[in-house]
Amino acid sequence: MFPVQETLPFEDLQEIPTASPWCQRWRERTHSWRHVRDGGFDARRYEVAPLDEAQAEKFVITHHYSGSYPAATQRLALYETSTGERRLSGVAVFGVPVSEAVLTNPLPQLRPYAESLVCLRFVLLDECPGNSESWFLAHCFDALLAAGVRGVVSFADPVPRRTASGTLVMPGHVGTIYAATNAVYAGRATARTVKLLPNGTVFHDRAAQKIRRQEQGCEYAAAQLTALGAPRLRPGSDPALWLREALTAIGARNLRHRGAHRYVFRLGRTRREREQIKLGLPARTPYPKAPDLEPPAT
């Protein structure tokens, strides 16, 4: 349908293990680590509550490495309350994936977007002690269950993101929280090629499609590229041709991605309720603990 194809250089990046004793933290899109043995989490100092769209978007864009905010339907906040005031320390965003099949393949019995959602962002500040995330996630699931959600799909991306100059901006999601909270490991998502921008963020296929077809949101997608130095799309120009030239002009790269690790949570008040929810994908064991082998040199 679109004869104009981007011809970008390819690269492979070393993956990191998806299970480790380290907990990932963020502040202003810069990562740090907390070891699980450090502990220090005191549930009496924290609470979880719904969060409005504006606050959630500001927090995620400020601190998450992607610098972007997804299509959210449920937003929950982790507040630190030891000083008597609520201080926003973490945000979890659940919502709509790019395709309904992301939900219906692993959870075929649940109504997508209502009874099943995707965990799209999960961000804790560097001030949060080790083991904060498992407590936060458990309380998020309680809130989702009360809202009628029975299943959550989440992904752990083990591929690092680097800028064009080699600076590490995202070391990879280690996935420790999913193993620690007994998620069902459902194997890899589909392997694909993603477009990596010079700042280390991914330019998603859906954004490219919006530009080519001039669909709603195409202006925002194009602005991502012009902010990095691409020329503006002129009225009457071929959007597909402009996209190819824009990606080349800013130095975008094609990244061979072997597929994120997929995890499924079945929600219920009891173990029996959780196990009654049918899985559409086979449970895989054990949890992944080692990176993929590097492809042979060509």
Description:
The chain has 298 residues and is α+β, with helices and mostly antiparallel strands. The chain contains eight helices and 15 strands. The protein has helices at 53-63, 101-104, 132-146, 176-180, 205-213, 218-226, 239-250, 271-275; strands at residues 10-11, 22-27, 30-35, 46-50, 72-80, 87-95, 116-124, 151-156, 161-162, 168-170, 184-188, 192-196, 202-203, 253-257, 261-266. The strands form four sheets. The chain has a seven-stranded mixed beta sheet, sandwiched between helices.
Question: Can I get a quick summary?
Answer:
With 298 residues, this protein is of the alpha+beta class.
The ordered H/E elements are EEEEHEEHEHEEEHEEEHHHEEH
Number of helices: 8
The fraction of residues in strands falls at 25-35%
- Alpha-carbon Rg, integer: 20 Å
Strand order of the largest sheet: 4-5-6-7-8-15-11
Looking at this protein, list some descriptive labels.
globular; four-stranded mixed sheet; 298 residues
Topology diagram in text:
Layout: E1 10-11, E2 22-27, E3 30-35, E4 46-50, H1 53-63, E5 72-80, E6 87-95, H2 101-104, E7 116-124, H3 132-146, E8 151-156, E9 161-162, E10 168-170, H4 176-180, E11 184-188, E12 192-196, E13 202-203, H5 205-213, H6 218-226, H7 239-250, E14 253-257, E15 261-266, H8 271-275
Parallel strand pairs: 1-14, 7-8
Antiparallel strand pairs: 2-3, 4-5, 5-6, 6-7, 8-15, 9-10, 11-15, 12-13, 12-14
Helix pairs in contact: 5-6, 5-7
